[in-house]
Design goal:
alpha/beta, 6 strands, six-stranded mixed beta sheet, 35% helix
């Protein structure tokens, strides 16, 4: 029998997106029954009813679920005058929260709530991140969009909806502090819709 592997999963959700996030969580648990999964959900006013549904799903699969209060993060984003995306700050929460999540193995898989997992993630438990802060994948995007977010057309664009974070390196490189400094001194946001 294979050794049990642990994977810490970070989602961010508001109440509107909670049912979709619940589907993502279910797909992950259904396809990774051999993994010890710990879920952390950055809670942007998720209703008690939707929290209860998420908890019921996690209880069914005997998985740990922690809702993380985001009041302090929201206050920081507003103080930095960050522009909300479609009327909400939820999408920014993951950038600020990674210092605050306590995990045993220092590895966090950050997923957007609209991600469906249709296979095993076991190999993510074993990937040697070395001195890298995170593992990400290239994503396709139009060059016109790259110019809106100040990325040269020749540069690669990474999908931040699926990131495997090396929390120890994230903290030692002071990523959260650098993001806050960037939002404060360079640009208040990248979403203008």
């Amino acid at each position: 029998m294979a050794t049990t592997k642990t994977l810490n999963i970070l989602y961010q959700s508001d109440n509107y997106y909670a049912p979709i996030t619940g589907v993502s969580m279910t797909s992950l648990m259904e396809n990774n029954k051999d993994l010890d999964l710990n879920f952390f959900v950055l809670d942007d006013k998720i209703s008690d009813k939707n929290k209860s549904k998420m908890q019921t799903i996690c209880d069914k699969y005997k998985r740990q679920l922690t809702f993380v209060n985001t009041d302090k993060i929201l206050k920081t984003l507003k103080e930095l005058k960050v522009h909300p995306f479609k009327g909400t700050y939820t999408t920014y929460f993951k950038l600020i929260a990674l210092n605050e999540i306590n995990v045993k193995n220092g590895r966090i898989l950050q997923l957007d709530g609209d991600t469906v997992i249709n296979g095993s993630l076991r190999e993510l438990c074993d990937i040697d991140l070395g001195d890298n802060i995170c593992a990400a994948t290239y994503d396709c995007t139009m060059n016109g969009y790259k110019s809106l977010i100040d990325i040269p057309a020749t540069d690669k664009y990474y999908n931040c909806g699926v990131l495997l974070i090396n929390q120890k390196k994230w903290k030692s490189y002071k990523c959260t502090e650098k993001i806050i400094d960037h939002l404060k001194n360079v640009r208040h946001g990248y979403y203008t819709v």
